[in-house]
Amino acid sequence: MFYRPRRLPDQITLKYGPHDILERFFGMADAKAAELGLAVSVRAEFDPLLALHKRHRQEWGPLPASLDPRHSNLRIDQAFWIEGLDAKGETAFVHAARLFEWENTNLGEEVRSLRAFYDDPAKPLASGVRFPLTGAAANRIKGRCVFLGGLWVRPDCRGRGLSHLVPRLTSAYAYTRWGFDYAWGIVETHLYEAGLTGNYGPYRTEGPFTAETGGADKIDIVLLWAGGPAIVADLAVAIDPETKPSGRKIELPHHGETQNQHAAIGAAPRQ
Questions:
Q1: What's the distance, CA 254 to chain centroid?
Q2: Which of 173, 185, 172 is nearest to 231 (CA)?
Q3: What is the CATH number of the domain that holds 138?
Q4: Which of 54, 188, 244, 251 is 20 to 30 A removed from 91 (C-alpha atoms)?
């Protein structure tokens, strides 16, 4: 018999953010998952995520180094991943989050130095890995910053609304757990332009930038980011589509951006 997690609201302790909105959202997300025959689990150990990725590498793509226990010390108080299990106990989706505390630095500096991806960036830097985020937003984003990445939905579960639900679920749990100032991610430009990440939330964009992934390999990438208040305002709309983000003031103990412009967040840098 496989492990069947408790109902989602029973796994979550509300800390930061407006509890009424978050409680309703987690209840809605749990009910939606149940309608699809799925149970949601919040997980802390990343070795199982790495093993899962290896089994599904062909349809998943690279696991971000930020979420790979071979490259990063993923402490239990600074990282988690969400897993959806079907009736057979097989994984239907995953998404992960990791907290960075950048009071004396910023996103651009941490990405350019590769410290956002590797505990020891010396080797990838020497091999030619470069992520030159030089825009104004990247250099302004600091404080408590959450990286969201590693999103995967099993091919036979796609087209069922999970690309809209899962990223919001991950960011909502990250917010109530850490009360972050910003959420961010990186996606390859061609995926963003194709609209494949257009359902994920209130994310703004900067770029494109050309990243070097080692050797002669290069990819065009876009930075995606949103402030904590925009994340929460978007959750309010998710539970009540009649809510107008600009017409409702949500008091939050943070100084993140308040804009609610649409973009997306998806895959993260390659290893």
A1: 19
A2: 172
A3: 3.40.630.30
A4: 188
Does 116 reside within a domain?
A: yes
Q: How many domains does the chain have?
A: 1
**Separation between Cα atoms, residue 235 and residue 202, nearest integer Å:** 10
Measure the CA angle with vertex 191, ends 22 and 152; round to 5°.
50
Residue 266: inside a domain, yes or no? no
Report which of 256, 262, 202 is spatially closest to residue 229, judged by C-alpha positions.
256
Contact 269, 205 (CB under 8 A): no
Residues 117, 86: Cα–Cα separation, whole Å: 31
Going by C-alpha positions, the residue among 176, 177, 174, 179 that lies closest to residue 265 is 174
Q: Are 146 and 64 in contact (CB under 8 A)?
A: no
What is the spatial distance between Cα 233 and Cα 248, in angstroms, rounded to a whole number?
8
Q: Is 129 helix (H, G, I), strand (E, B) or coil?
A: strand
Query: Under 8 Å CB-to-CB from 128, ≥6 apart: which residues?
Result: 212, 214, 215
Q: For residue range 58-113, what is the model confidence (pLDDT) as tens digits? A: 899 889 999 999 999 999 999 999 999 999 999 999 999 999 999 999 999 999 99
Q: Where are the alpha helices (DSSP H) in the chain?
A: 8-11, 19-35, 47-55, 57-60, 107-112, 122-126, 136-140, 162-178, 189-193, 228-239
- ∠ CA 199-94-74, nearest 5°, is 115
Look at residue 48 and tell me if it is in a domain.
Answer: yes
Domain extent at residue 129: 8-247
